[in-house]
Design goal:
The chain is built from 16 helices and seven strands. The protein is α/β, with parallel strands linked by helices. It folds into two domains: about 45 residues; about 325 residues, Spore Coat Polysaccharide Biosynthesis Protein SpsA, Chain A. It has a seven-stranded mixed β-sheet, with helices on both faces.
Length: about 375
């Protein structure tokens, strides 16, 4: 019934816009329509609403960027199946050519992908395409697929002589101008702790904005990150398992039972935390304690954390995130409260406060991940 209602509502909106476009053929009509809808919603609601626009195509991107020596050392690995709606992956590669002209983009995807799309990508001067054989087992929430395509892309970056890599996805797009100079500079400015012999530099981890990542141990984003090529190869060289676990399984195990964030982490039922914990198992032969205290100590020693906003990340896969920037950025949730602290999410600002000792650990920070439960 809910699906039918949504479908009918979408058709109603389309009809309204169609009629308005015929009567008022103004360039900003769609924006005006949204503005009126938002204004009405604000009158009756408890939130202010705003519109955030992004260009779909490279011809709409204004850029006077030039190749830099730092960019020539870097590559972007876009891993996963090609995003074909609006030619998203192809247009992302073209936008990167304008924003980051010295960067090589490696699209790491699968055998059997549309050959025409592969041809178009290979025709872009800044792009290399790698097609891998799909793994026999998908693993936890397709984690084996992610690892296979990520490692193939990282190896190609190394073969091309690139020293630093930004790991992303084929359905992701970043847009912050100067972001590679920023990421390179913070690696240079904040050395890894001398006790961490297996890393040459810190790893720049992406903040996971959905679960209050500051107080949810080891919830780094698996969508993006940046680092020295050898460090990234070690980090992503995850030992693949045959524990196929789908989204439907997740619904039954996590959402229907309503387990806590830390219970999910300790049960190894999140791809994000499994990657991090497996890294320490391989490098240090141990799994860190699932506590904010140890989590923060590890971050201070060997990671830097940046947010989606810091790099201008866009992910149009799910409508409930794409149309709610506050939810996607982790800055505001209507149902949040002092016991959940879901809007407490990492960005570079808060990482710097932690690193400099301005923000210090308190025992109360352990509560949210031990009490906040998943729900449908």
């Amino acid at each position: 019934m809910e699906k039918i209602s949504k479908r009918l509502f979408k058709r109603f909106i389309k009809c309204q816009l169609y009629v308005l476009r015929k009567i008022f053929p103004a360039k900003r009509l769609d924006s005006r329509f949204l503005e009126y809808c938002f204004a009405e919603q604000e009158q009756s609601g408890k939130e202010y609403l705003s519109i955030f626009k992004r260009p779909k195509y490279s011809e709409n991107v204004v850029s006077i960027e030039e190749k830099t020596e730092i960019q020539k050392k870097c590559a972007i690995v876009m891993q996963g199946p090609l995003a074909k709606k609006d030619d998203f992956t192809i247009n992302t590669v073209r936008i990167y050519k304008k924003l980051y002209p010295g960067i090589i983009v490696i699209v790491s995807t699968w055998e059997g992908e549309n050959p025409e799309y592969i041809r178009q990508l290979n025709n872009e001067s800044n792009c290399r395409v790698i097609c891998s054989k799909a793994p026999e087992h998908s693993g936890l929430l397709n984690l084996n697929y992610q690892i296979t395509s990520t490692m193939a892309g990282l190896r190609e970056a190394k073969n091309l002589g690139r020293e630093y890599v930004f790991k992303s996805r084929t359905d992701n797009r970043i847009s912050t101008k100067g972001v590679f100079e920023f990421l390179y500079s913070i690696l240079d400015s904040y050395p890894v702790d001398k006790a961490i012999a297996y890393q040459k530099y810190r790893i720049v981890a992406g903040a996971e904005p959905r679960y209050g990542s500051m107080f949810s141990p080891f919830w780094f984003s698996d969508q993006f990150g940046f680092g020295y090529i050898e460090d990234m190869l070690k980090y992503w060289d995850y030992l693949q398992l045959n524990d196929d676990f789908s989204v439907k399984d997740l619904q039954k195990t996590v959402f229907e039972k309503g387990i806590t964030i830390n219970e999910r982490t300790n049960a190894d039922l999140a791809a994000e935390t499994r990657i991090v914990r497996n890294y320490f198992l391989r490098m240090e032969n141990r799994i860190p304690e699932c506590s904010v205290k140890e989590y923060w100590e590890i971050i201070k020693k060997q990671f830097i954390i940046v947010s989606h906003t810091d790099v201008g990340l866009f992910w149009p896969k799910y409508d409930y995130m794409r149309f709610d920037e506050a939810w996607w950025q982790g800055s505001y949730y209507f149902e949040d409260d002092d016991s959940k602290c879901v809007s407490y999410n990492w960005d570079f600002l808060h990482w710097l406060l932690l690193y400099n000792g301005v923000m210090e650990y308190q025992k109360k920070y352990e509560l949210p991940a031990n009490t906040t439960r998943y729900h449908r």
